[in-house]
């Protein structure tokens, strides 16, 4: 009996020890490894190049991107997603800008791709650079300079509305400090062959993707002012120690729709490439659907007719696909469009039904009420309009003040796990 009692006591001690170890393990925080997070991104689509404005001769393109997160190690993703021929990049440099397209040469890095200076990207593909060291401050401007030798280009992969001044010049000016005064230089407010910039970070960092149309892209915002609502959100995140580890990736396309291709692939079709493939994404904010409604109920020429149930189902699908990847999804209510060219009472009824669903559904993790932020309180509730203080006269797009109000209205607790 004494032997049996000793065995029982020994077993009890072992069980307690195991439980103690388990408790210690569960209480310990997991080690946070270095990982890649997007600091800047854009949504490319196709430009017809039948006139041969690009590819007919060697050219250098210097493109300015405004990053959100900083970091010590970077990589750049180039894209030929919408090209129909292989795209050859003869060389690429990255540096901090000093204004007007000029760069700081002491920060300049020649990109490599598998150790080589250039790369040929197959049609429909992207290419990731090798990582390189650069002390990148948050909210800074980065210049990506590409040398593109003469080659066939039936279609060009670009983002049409960058709201940044970029530079295209003849020849190879990769290593030049300045490009704005080069012979034959032209300016553009589009980005060409760029997909994203990532930083390698340590700690609890991640990215927020803002998916939408021209109101997310920043239509009618001041060029070179970084005045979109995602820009304002990025500034606020960096100003709060609880959220400064979050980058913002603007995946808006002017004219874009949820269900049908229009300006660029529909949100449903581009979701994998523009959202799920971005590194470190933790949160998604969707502000999209007004173009689906506007075109479907256009009093002049309606086409691609959709119902409220159709666009609700589309957003629910995006949320389901994001949730599978562990991404939290916030719906943003559609801003007013009373007085816009394609506005109609029938379309307004759909807009209000869609907004009501966003405010009440359990399919999303929360909502941001942009309609309430920019609506004119004096306009009729049955067909509200933009506040004149926040609109640039087309009754559809915010001005800089409107974009700032939208960015300022977002509760940062949505991104701290305390909502």
UniProtKB/TrEMBL annotation:
Cross-referenced SUPFAM superfamilies: SGNH hydrolase (SSF52266)
Question: Which Pfam families does its entry note?
Answer: Lipase_GDSL_2 (PF13472)
Question: What region holds the SGNH hydrolase-type esterase domain?
Answer: 211-405
Q: Which CDD domains match?
A: XynE_like
The leader peptide range reads 1-27
GO molecular function list:
hydrolase activity, acting on ester bonds
| Protein name, per record | Lipolytic protein G-D-S-L family
Originating species:
Granulicella tundricola (strain ATCC BAA-1859 / DSM 23138 / MP5ACTX9)
State the taxonomy lineage: Bacteria, Pseudomonadati, Acidobacteriota, Terriglobia, Terriglobales
